[in-house]
Amino acid sequence: MIVKSEALTARGKRTRSALVQAGREAFEEQGFDAVRVDDVCARAGVSHGTFYTYFSGKEALFTEVTSAVMGEMFAANVVGSLAPGDPRARIEAANRLYLRAWAANSRMVRMLEQAAAGDDRFRALLLEVREVFVRRGADGLRRLQEQGLADPSLDPRLTAIMLGGMVEHFAHVWLDLGEQADEETAVALLTKLWARAIGLTPTSITEVAP
Amino acid sequence: MIVKSEALTARGKRTRSALVQAGREAFEEQGFDAVRVDDVCARAGVSHGTFYTYFSGKEALFTEVTSAVMGEMFAANVVGSLAPGDPRARIEAANRLYLRAWAANSRMVRMLEQAAAGDDRFRALLLEVREVFVRRGADGLRRLQEQGLADPSLDPRLTAIMLGGMVEHFAHVWLDLGEQADEETAVALLTKLWARAIGLTPTSITEVAP
Amino acid sequence: MIVKSEALTARGKRTRSALVQAGREAFEEQGFDAVRVDDVCARAGVSHGTFYTYFSGKEALFTEVTSAVMGEMFAANVVGSLAPGDPRARIEAANRLYLRAWAANSRMVRMLEQAAAGDDRFRALLLEVREVFVRRGADGLRRLQEQGLADPSLDPRLTAIMLGGMVEHFAHVWLDLGEQADEETAVALLTKLWARAIGLTPTSITEVAP
Amino acid sequence: MIVKSEALTARGKRTRSALVQAGREAFEEQGFDAVRVDDVCARAGVSHGTFYTYFSGKEALFTEVTSAVMGEMFAANVVGSLAPGDPRARIEAANRLYLRAWAANSRMVRMLEQAAAGDDRFRALLLEVREVFVRRGADGLRRLQEQGLADPSLDPRLTAIMLGGMVEHFAHVWLDLGEQADEETAVALLTKLWARAIGLTPTSITEVAP
DNA sequence: TATGAATGAGGGTTCATTCAT
DNA sequence: AATGAATGAACCCTCATTCAT
Known about the structure:
CATH architecture of the largest domain in chain A: Orthogonal Bundle
Strand content of chain A: under 5%
Helix content of chain A: over 70%
CATH superfamily of the largest domain in chain A: Tetracycline Repressor, domain 2
Largest interface: C-D, 43 and 41 residues
Radius of gyration of chain A: 20 Å
Number of helices of chain A: 8
Largest sheet of chain A: none
CATH class of the largest domain in chain A: Mainly Alpha
Oligomer: homotetramer
Number of domains of chain A: 2
Order of helices and strands of chain A: HHHHHHHH
Shape of chain A: elongated
Structural class of chain A: mainly alpha
């Protein structure tokens, strides 16, 4: 008797999203295996019987939570694509957004990575999200190459994976492992390294924003 | 009545290392939580009871295994430091060694990352290993800066973290997530990106370091 | 707030009998323990809560259903008693009716047997129904004995139990366990065995019916 | 880590058979569904964890118990076939043995009937046992027919099913439903009914086999 | 040393029943 | 009358660990 989001009374919707929220917090704090269904229920303030009204089990909740997080990551990426300006500014904006998306979702993505090691469905979800970021990075580089602003000999996909990985990995070290750094410094350095790595030609008069 | 490596009969040593080996395989394939002590014993061809002759529990075995892996990572790093040649060649050699070290230990390091999220002792071990790599990268960069071969404005530590992360993360994407690439191409590109990112001045005549 | 059959709106009556019908089907297909109240409600097209408007619980529904079935068995028996004719024809008619009553109710009677093993109320109901059949059989035999048509040394009750059991059991083997046989052959053989077993004297000129 | 009968230490064998014995008692008293694994463990005097050392679950225990019971039924039948003497004496001996086999196993056979309704594996086991009895009865009748001692027009299989069913069913009514009767009377009546039903010719001089 | 039987805390899940709407 | 969300007792099962042999 599992109930989906649709066709729920207001009360049901409230309970369901309380469980999703509680689940997200629990997974982030403890990891998939360490989370007990009862923990989630206690956080959400419902009995454990109620849990099974909405989800078939712990894994189903996890799927729901990760999907939501991945959705946020997608959204962050879309917003980022609106950034205008000269190439360097765009790279900087992208890096900043990327770092912030990670700041919000880092733990859950790591949980997903963990889950992906043992379950192909999670693996597929992970690869799907990753692909969006890779493609966006590769497209950006290709455009610069076409405009003669970046080294045309670089393989766009592989380069995007490597430099994107640099940002993603730094976010992890920074946020999860406690490496000290402030956002401004980090974004500036990431941008400098990225720009130079692709051989970005400084547009003759690089008027920096005031 | 746990027995350490020292003071063991030959038979005891054999049993113990069979358990460590079996444990490593099991952890790599299934992850810490999914591994049951029985799995390890079955792999090692030993009865359950025997396990506790050598280890106080599953966690103790994990500690032992991760320590061994970290030791291999250290060793790889040390070997890498012997590489001679011009800066570019040294960076290339380091990247190649790094990728290979990951090829051998990627899964266990990820397990350690996972364990680090919930246990401070594992966290400390992880940070310790990471520090070795970071320091080596930072030292290398500082030397180049002193020789006037790299951009002196770069923060050595932060830059080493970022570029080292690029390599580490690529190894993960390549080996664990199945991104297609051959080692030569990957090493060449990583090296090119790394070198350009730090503003490496192409040394006209490759004077080997003293 | 359980509502009985009397004093119900038309709508209420419809809902109630939908539940009884759904319950009978469910019990026949799955057995008492395997049936969940939700199954019954789903079959009846009613929400869980509504069930308890009409029945105090699963057992109450079961009681209702079995009572109905037992009623049908009684009715079958009554109809059978109207059969006229010579003794052999009456025995044949009774056997045929008995087999047919089982064809319609076999599963539910078995459920009742099952329930009777653990609950004295069901046991009493079962014995009550059985008694009707036994008594009818014993009375029939006694009449034949008084008429000098059957072996007077037979204990009427015990004989009725044994020969009646033969018919009942055959019905079970035939219908529930899938033994191949057609009704005509079965009824003829049961009648022959029964008649001979009680030492039925062939009435010299048996033709009664017009 | 389920352990079969073979390859067990003496202690293991003791524990295992204690569980089987406890299981049999529990199933007989309460029926499959009502039995809790913990009940069985308590009866056997072991912790519930131990149960799973020997059986994969409740159903596996039930399979084991029913197999044992069916084995006893087989054995009873084999012993019965040794009975010598004139036809009437043989029928009487068979009926007595049959009643006694039921006295010992009645409850478990009913459990099996119950289980057979929902599980084809149990159904197959039930049919297999039943077939042995049917075949034995049919063979006996056929031999009498060939010797000119019984009505040759009777279908041996169907007749055996019906008369065998009479005995089986009486056993149930007698033992499970509490119908009052003593064994001697019951066996004598069953034998008389059976013999007359098949038209057994009284052998003038009852020569017992040497 | 090695064995494997025994233990029991701990966790996931089901489902009859209650109750506010 | 009907609904369906919420409850929690009751069960099944796993597995790390202990211990007698």
